[in-house]
Design a protein that fits this description.
It is a single chain. With about 55 residues, this protein is mainly α. Helix content is about 90%, strand content about 0%. Helix 1 runs antiparallel to helix 2. The radius of gyration is 13 Å and the shape is elongated.
Length: about 55
Amino acid sequence: MKGEDMSVFKSYLRQLLVQLQDLRKAIRDGDRAKAEEIVDILIRNTQAGIEDD
């Protein structure tokens, strides 16, 4: 990976980590609606990333 590509990938990973931590918290708190919202966001972001190629 080139330097710029690596930077973009690391940024994506940081965002993913925050979302996964939020998802874990929502699950632990029993907040199903929030957990589903986070999963929906993860799916949309992944789909958009795939389609950008």
